[in-house]
Amino acid sequence: xxxxxxxxxxxxxxxxxxxxxxxxxxxxxxxxxxxxxxxxxxxxxxxxxxxxxxxxxxxxxxxxxxxxxxxxxxxxxxxxxxxxxxxxxxxxxxxxxxxxxxxxxxxxxxxxxxxxxxxxxxxxxxxxxxxxxxxxxxxxxxxxxxxxxxxxxxxxxxxxxxxxxxxxxxxxxxxxxxxxxxxxxxxxxxxxxxxxxxxxxxxxxxxxxxxxxxxxxxxxxx
Length: 222
Ligand code: C5P
Known about the structure:
Elements: E1 5-9, H1 16-27, E2 30-33, H2 34-48, H3 55-64, E3 67-70, E4 77-80, E5 83-84, H4 92-101, H5 105-110, H6 112-116, E6 124-128, H7 131-135, E7 141-146, H8 149-162, H9 169-185, E8 198-201, H10 207-221
Parallel strand pairs: 1-6, 1-7, 2-6, 7-8
Antiparallel strand pairs: 3-4, 4-5
Helix pairs in contact: 1-10, 2-4, 4-9, 8-9
The chain binds cytidine-5'-monophosphate.
């Protein structure tokens, strides 16, 4: 029997990361933050001086990506070789780098097996854009989280403020909208719900009730 996977896809700021981590804790399952892979790759490209449109060069970097995830659901740290990049990859700047390298088909293909390797017993919560459509198309439970762009920008703004990063809300809203547009319009693995995904709007819904809602859906489908 196959190891179960719950895929959580959606745009940035839809609550995916938070919800996926909480689900991982509740179920005691593994967790894949696929966006972190693309963010680390974007950073690695920049540090290596590989241009963001050099698909062949970026594909080589993607295969060799010396990324490491450490720790459990909360307080997980992300390493690029010997460098702790946990905070750095969360900037909207790194989100932009990620979204550019993520638009390249060979780069995505290079990261496919690495992502699938996270599927380990007793189960996996996979957070991203194409978890239900491309990486785990056979997953028994697929969730697509949404929220209005304004709400997502507000959440990111709050999150960044808590981390001591001050940003302008309207600039953030513009950056988020741009990144969504790039993610949704790309030719390969665009941001869109799988046909068999359950769409959950998280605008004005508490985190706790989204988690309960997803657990209910999971119970019905697993
Ligand atoms: O989820 P997060 O904001 O960390 O993702 C950063 C970027 O990485 C996204 O804007 C998207 O372009 C890309 N990404 C992707 N496929 C995934 C996860 C992230 O293309 N499965």
